[in-house]
Amino acid sequence: MRTFIIAEIGINHNGDMDIAKQLILAAKKADCDAVKFQKRTVEKVYTKEYLDSPRESPWGDTQRDQKMGLELGLEQYQVIDRLCKEIGIEWFASAWDIEAQKFIRQFDLKYNKIASAMNANKDFLLEVASEGKYTFISTGMSTYDEIDIAVEIFKSAGCEFELMHCSSLYPMPKKDANLKMIETLRKRYNCKVGYSGHETGRIVSLSAAVLGATSIERHITLDRAMYGSDQAASIDTPDLERLVADIRMLELIMGDGEKRMSDEELAIRKKLKG
């Protein structure tokens, strides 16, 4: 089984298209299957009071300045769309409101993503499920009741989906990975289950692959010391290459579980067993 590997660029581009392009190219070089962004309609997602509150950032001194500085617009996503098509890598985005989902829809992408923060919003879930696209649903900071509802909405809509075990800590301490939840979710919902990680390093993601995670999603960055709330929970591009190579090797090592002997083993058998 080939693990679907997603390089989450998210907002780690810091509103800079040169950084976004570098991260897309790095994901392709590492042999990732897709890159993912995040899209918000800032005035819809946050209250005016919150947006007017102070926050120092490269774009100004309010939360609004910071949030708007991180958002990419139509022309920028058109550049992303062209680049991904040129180099042969899928891209998609997790929208944080219905208007943002409709914005992303215009690019006719293969996949959707439900962020953990949105998986209890029924109206949003119904909107995404109505598109009928394969959807990754993160389960961070969620109760079984909330996951039950999301699963029912997608099943009722006939929309294929995959749950993603996730802990919404940035960065996530490795002791909180709880990877046995991959099998728990698989049994409870009888569906594919991937892993969306926010830890440092590679060992947790590799362990998830061994446990049969059908997808692995990791935030990526050019430099974990860069400005941004997600940078510290990301892996840099050299580590991304190592992670993907290790997962591909694990796929070979794990095999398919069928008992067989190679030609080399048969030759040894002939010598030792006659």
Can you walk through the features of this model?
The chain has 274 residues and is α/β, with parallel strands linked by helices. Helices cover 43% and strands 20% of the residues. The chain is built from 12 helices and 11 strands. The strands form 2 sheets. Strands 1, 2, 5, 6, 7, 8, 9, 10 and 11 form a 9-stranded parallel sheet that branches. The chain has a two-stranded antiparallel sheet with strand order 3-4. Helix 8 (144-156) links the parallel strand 7 (134-138) and strand 8 (161-166). The chain starts with a strand and ends with a helix.
Helices and strands in order:
Layout: E1 4-10, H1 17-29, E2 34-39, H2 42-45, H3 48-52, E3 54-57, E4 60-62, H4 63-70, H5 74-87, E5 90-95, H6 98-105, E6 111-114, H7 122-129, E7 134-138, H8 144-156, E8 161-166, H9 181-189, E9 193-197, H10 203-210, E10 215-221, E11 235-236, H11 237-254, H12 263-273
Parallel strand pairs: 1-2, 1-10, 2-5, 6-7, 7-8, 8-9, 9-10, 10-11
Antiparallel strand pairs: 3-4
